[in-house]
Every structure is written in C-alpha cells, then in structure tokens.
TrEMBL record:
Gene3D superfamilies: Periplasmic binding protein-like II (3.40.190.10). InterPro entries: Solute-binding_3/MltF_N. This is ABC transporter substrate-binding protein. Residues 27-249 form the Solute-binding protein family 3/N-terminal domain. Residues 1-24 form the signal peptide. Keywords: Signal. Belongs to the bacterial solute-binding protein 3 family. The keyword Signal applies. It comes from Shewanella glacialipiscicola. The keyword Signal applies.
Length: 283
C-alpha cells in the first residue's frame, strides 16, 4: 500500500510540474578559464555565467561540472573530447571546426582602458596606430583591431595587462567592460584612480556554450541546453542572474561592428530582443 501511495504521489508531482527526476541525463564535464566577474573558480556559484550553464542543464535533467584551466589548455581538452565543452565562448567561424555553439547567453562589451594621466583619445581605430595595446593571449580578440593594423602585445591575463598599463609599458588595454571594473575594484589601492575607459565600446561579443564536436552526443547536449536556457529566459531566471552585469550606455553603434554579427545568428527572436535591449539601454 505504501509503495502504491509513493508511486501515486510521484505521478501527481509530475503532472503538476513540481517534480524533476534525479538527473536523468549523463554528467557533463565542462572547461572554463578564469574570467571574473563572469566566471571564476573562487566566485560564488563560480560566477553568474557558470550558474546559468549549470541551471539550464539541470532543468533538462543533467548535472554539469565546471573545472578551470588556462585558456589554451581548456581549448585543447575540448578539441580532443576530454572535456565535453567550454563555457563563455565567443563565436568565430574557425571555431565551428571543433565546437557546436549554443544559443547566446550574455552580451559582452569590449572597450579600451587607459591611464587617467594620459591625454590619449580617438574616434577611429586607425588613430590608435602609434600606441601599444595590451591584449589577452589566445583570446578571440575583435578582428577589427588587427584589420586596422594596430600594434598589440599579448599577456597571459587581463590582470597582467593592467599591471603593465600602470607601469606605462603599454598605452591601452583591450578588455571587457565588466572585467575592467572588477579588476579595478578588486585590485591594489593604486588602481582606484589610475585608469579610465576611453572611447565607445569597440565590439559587442556574446558568450555561448561550446560543446565539443568530438563528443558523440554534442547535438543533443546543445539542444537540451538551449531548451533549458530558453525556459530560464521566459520565466525571468536568466535576467535575475545576469542583472549583476551592467551594460554601458552607448550613443553610437560599436566602431565598425554592428548587431548583425555572425554570433547573433543563433538567437531565437525572444533572445535577440533581450540582448538588443541590454546593449541599447545600458544599465
């Protein structure tokens, strides 16, 4: 009798949407690099983007685990199928050779930072040719930077680039808006009044989940993740988690880049509108 009641109770919970079977899908192993405040090992919930990825999979009955590596190591694990995928990937055509991209998760505004005591200003990228720009090694930096023939120097991290900027070893840092704010707020005391953004955002990138093409069920994993992500978008959970990441007010489109970027081709209409609103109204 007790067993029948238990079964009946479970059926009722399923019917009314209050029950989720215990992780019906397999465990998913994902790689990530440290990219605070979006995702990093030491952040609460490993950061907001990590939280979104795990919750989207959980809604579809999967448990996702995220481990952190240097970017080059993480991409190698994904290419070889030793990790199921990588979070926070920006779309590039050549990456389609080794990952299956999910629907967009979060927009990222790419900006320049300079020292406050520098008179440097610009309205066109070509005006930056006399200056040295610090970029991240292995990052999918905006192609416009290289197309303009700008002088760049790679560093292993954004943190290292800000140290070099402070020491006047470089003139600018190319960095995500939210990351710059985080590093300045969490960095040494001398950072507080040392740096400022210059110019409008150079590019709007978009975080995706990239699932390895070396994984046999990659198409299914992307489809399941997209379903979970869309349900989070519809019930407001996605906006709730990502509201911690402000967007800059912009008075003009990003330099030489628009929202027709290939990375937005994955957007369902509801997601496209949400991303567009985040980028256009700021906050």
């Amino acid at each position: 009798m007790g067993k029948k009641l238990s079964t009946l109770s479970s059926l009722c919970l399923l019917m009314f949407g209050f029950y989720h079977p215990a992780f019906a899908g397999r465990e998913i192993h994902l790689a990530a690099t440290h990219y605070p405040p979006f995702y990093a090992e030491g952040l609460p919930e490993q950061g907001g983007v990590s939280q979104v990825v795990k919750e989207a999979f959980e809604r579809q009955g999967y448990r996702a685990n995220i481990k952190f590596y240097p970017f080059a190591r993480g991409t190698l694990l994904v290419k070889n199928g030793k990790a199921d995928g990588m979070i926070g990937m920006w779309y590039r055509k050549d990456r389609e050779q080794w990952v299956d991209f999910s629907a967009p998760i979060q927009p990222v505004q790419i900006v320049f930072y300079k020292r406050k005591d520098s008179a440097l200003s610009f309205s066109k990228l070509a005006e930056l040719k006399p200056y040295t720009i610090g970029i991240g090694r292995g990052y999918a930096n905006p192609p416009e930077i290289f197309a303009a023939g700008l002088m760049t120097e790679e560093a292993n991290s954004d943190e290292m680039n800000f140290k070099r900027l402070l020491l006047k070893r470089i003139d600018l840092v190319l960095v995500a808006h939210n990351i710059a704010r985080y590093l300045i707020e969490e960095g040494p005391a001398e950072y507080a009044n040392a740096f400022e953004q210059v110019g409008q955002p150079v590019a709007n990138e978009v975080f995706h989940l990239g699932i390895s093409l070396a994984v046999a069920d990659h198409s299914q994993l992307v489809a399941e993740f997209n379903k979970g992500l869309e349900s989070m978008r519809k019930d407001g959970r996605l906006a709730e988690i990502l509201s911690q990441y402000s967007q800059l007010d912009t008075v003009q489109p990003p330099i030489e880049k628009s929202l027709s970027s290939p990375s937005l081709k994955f957007l369902p209409r509801t997601a496209h509108n949400a991303i567009h609103n985040q980028l256009s109204k700021g906050g």
